[in-house]
Amino acid sequence: MKRNSALLLLLYVTAVLLLGCGKKADPAPSAAASGGAAAPEPKAGGELNLLAWSEYVPQEVLDGFTKETGIKVNYEAFASNEEMMSKLLAGGTRYDLIQPSEYTVEALVKQKKLKELDHSRIPNLKNIAPVFRGQPHDPELKYSVPWMASTVGIVVNTEKVKEPIKGYKDVFQPKYKGRIVALNDARELVSWVLVTMGHKADDVTPETLAKIKPTLAEWIKLVKVFDSDSPKTALLNGDVDLGVIWSGEAAILHDTDKKKFQFILPAEGTHKAIDSLAIPDNAQNKIGAEMFMNYILRPEVSKLISDKFPYTNPNMEARKLLTPEQLANPASYPPLTEMETFHDIGKAAADIDKLVTDLKAASE
């Protein structure tokens, strides 16, 4: 019996050894198992610094995002792309999100001042209409998420102005001196004169600026109020009778009194603008910024933006939630597909700013 037990034991040990030879090697121990800490999932910070256009971001949207995520949004406003660029490049505040127009997105991409987006964190990007994709400034939406689109048009108080108004030349006449509100935006002002004189809006050279200077000087003298923040206010208050203003502002006037305030696309031509959210290269809360992008692309949230600021909504699913009256507003939904966008003009932008600043100073 002892010999048989020993033999059985020998056979058992041999079998175990043979099986062990065919066993796969154990996987390498994880960082946690080996005593090291596994790389943590990146998290959003507790605050988000947003630099955006004034009269453009509903407080309800900011509050809703904070309630859901716990991330506080610090909203700082600007009135022009040039002002935004100045604040961004000054470096006093590190912004996590900015809201540039298309030509400014183009410039910032060239200067490598924007972070590339992680589309996996922005699944609601699928709601953006095809017409807002493939645009020259960011064809693949690698750096920007469309917020709203707009154009510039003419608003006429028909109770005060009885003559037909069809374009810029009809507005900027001596008889309307002191009765006009215009955007406080040098690039816009110059573009209006350029197209009136047969040039393209981006045809900015020393020669074209010299050519339009006398006309631009006369037009500036006729304007009572320069306002990019809320140009509708001067019209609502009766301080002026005509305005060349953002289409979203015109849409609010149209909703206020359809008979009194008439919206007109300038006969000489105008352009479309696509304002987007983008993340600066030095942003400290990129994940929080992408969370905010995804949040505002929800149809019900995007609708809130349209309700408060009735520009052209690029969100297909949000448009389905709008009323027929909202969709029929001629200032909210003009034929943008027929218009071009501004393009980055590089150093010529500084020439425009200097020209307009000098002419305004001379008119005072």
Account of the protein in words:
The protein is an alpha/beta fold and 364 residues long. It has two domains: 165 residues, D-Maltodextrin-Binding Protein, domain 2 (3-Layer(aba) Sandwich), CATH 3.40.190; 142 residues, Periplasmic binding protein-like II (D-Maltodextrin-Binding Protein, domain 2). It contains 14 helices and nine strands. The strands form two sheets. Strands 4, 5, 6, 7, 8 and 9 form a six-stranded mixed sheet that branches. A three-stranded parallel sheet has the order 2-1-3. Helix 6 packs across helix 7, helix 6 crosses helix 14 and helix 7 packs parallel to helix 14. The radius of gyration is 29 Å and the shape is globular.
How would you briefly describe this protein structure?
The protein is an alpha/beta fold. The protein has helices spanning about 1-20, 60-70, 80-90, 100-110, 170, 185-195, 205-220, 230-235, 245-255, 285-295, 300-310, 315-320, 325-330, 350-364, and strands at about 45-55, 70-80, 95-100, 145-155, 180, 225, 240-245, 260-265, 270-280.
- The CATH architecture of the largest domain would be 3-Layer(aba) Sandwich
CATH topology-level name of the largest domain? D-Maltodextrin-Binding Protein, domain 2
Question: Helix proportion of residues, in percent?
Answer: 25-40%
C-alpha end-to-end distance: 121 Å
Radius of gyration, in angstroms, nearest whole number? 29 Å
CATH class of the largest domain: Alpha Beta
**What is the count of structural domains?**
2
Strand content: 5-15%
Average of per-residue pLDDT values: 90
Order of helices and strands: HEHEHEHEHEHHEHEHEEHHHHH
- Output the structural class: alpha/beta
